[in-house]
C-alpha cells in the first residue's frame, strides 16, 4: 500500500507551505523552498516540476488510495459504502503531518488565486477518480458521477474538521469523512 | 432579463471558437480573433482581458440566469424544482448560436489543457452560484451543495445532448436539462 513517508518530499511540502504562509505564494521562490527543506534545487525539481505542483502534492497518492479502497470494497457494497471504503483507505495513510498541514494549506490557498484554481482542479480530479473506480465496479453512470461528487464533498468537509479538531482527540480522519458522507446521504433524500 | 444579443461580443466568441478549432488554441493570436470578428484589438480587450476568457464568455450571464430562476421559483418548490427553474431560465435565453457553439467549443476544449482547466473552473463556479442561490432560499447547507453539483451535471449533460441533437428538432435546451436532472434525481436514490 502507498504511504506518505517522511523524507525529502515531505520536507519540501512542509517548507513550501510554511513559506507560502509567511511570505505569500507569489513571493516565495523555488530556491527558498529548497533551502528551507535542506535539499538542492535539482532535488526539488525531481519531485515537483513546478512551484504550484507542490500544493497539489499527494493528489496522485490520494487518487490511488481512493481507487484501491473502492476497488477492494466487498462485492455487495452499495456505491456510497464503496466510497466510504476508499475514504477509510485514505484515512489509514494519513498521519499527524497531514493533519497539521490542513490549516496552513488553507491559509496559503486563501491568499492566492492561482492556488485556489489548483485546489479546485485537484478536487475535480479526485471526483473523476472516484467515478471511474465505481464504474469499474459496475455502478451505472449517473449514480457513479453523483457518488464521485459526494465523495469529494465528504473528503473536503471531513478533512477540514479533522484538521481543526482538538489535537488530543484520537479520532481518525475516517471518523469525520464517514460523518460527512452520512450527512450528505441524508441530505440527498431532501432534494425533492 | 439578461439576453445574449448578437453583436461584437458574440462575433468575437464565434471567431475565437472557429480559430481555436482550425489552428488550435495555442497558435491563435488575439489579433487574428479581432480581425476575423471585424473589430479592433482594443474592442476585443474591452470584452475579454485575456484570450482564455473568451471561452468562459457567458459564464457570468449563465450564473446570473441560474440565480434569477432559482430565486424566483415558487416558495413551495423543492431544492431540485428550484434548480430546474434556474435551468429553464437559462434555456429561455439560449438560442441557435449557443447551440451551434457546443460542438465547436467541445473540440477546442478537447485540444487544449489550458481550456480544459478553464472549463472545469467554470463548472465549479456555476455550482457555487446554484448553491448560494439555494442557501438564500433557506435550503440547508449539505443539501444546497449537493443540489449545486446536480445542477451542473444536469446542465453539462443537457447542453451536450441539445448541441448534438437533430437541428430540425424544436426541443429547447430545457427539455434535455430537465431529463438529465430527473435521471440524477432517480440515481440519487440508488447511492445506498
Describe this structure in words.
- The structure is a homodimer of 192-residue chains.
- The first copy, chain A, has 192 residues and is an all-alpha fold.
- Chain A has a domain of 133 residues: Tetracycline Repressor, domain 2.
- In chain A, 72% of the residues lie in helices and 0% in strands.
- Chain A has nine helices and no strands.
- Chains A and B meet through helix 5, helix 7, helix 8 and helix 9 of A and helix 5, helix 7, helix 8 and helix 9 of B.
Characterize the overall form of chain A.
elongated
Give the largest interface: A-B, 28 and 28 residues
Number of strands of chain A: 0
Q: Mean pLDDT of chain A, rounded to whole units?
A: 88
CATH topology of the domain at 56-188 in chain A: Tetracycline Repressor, domain 2
Oligomer: homodimer
Q: If helices are DSSP runs of H or I spanning 4 or more residues, what is the number of helices of chain A? A: 9
Determine the strand fraction of chain A and express it as a percent band: under 5%
Quick one: CATH class of the domain at 56-188 in chain A?
Mainly Alpha
- Written as H for each helix and E for each strand, in order along the chain, the element string of chain A is HHHHHHHHH
Rg of chain A, nearest Å: 17 Å
Report the helical percentage of chain A.
Answer: over 70%
Unreliable spans of chain A are 1-5
CATH superfamily of the domain at 56-188 in chain A: Tetracycline Repressor, domain 2
Question: What's this entry about, in short?
Answer:
2 copies of one chain form a homodimer. Chain A is mostly helical.
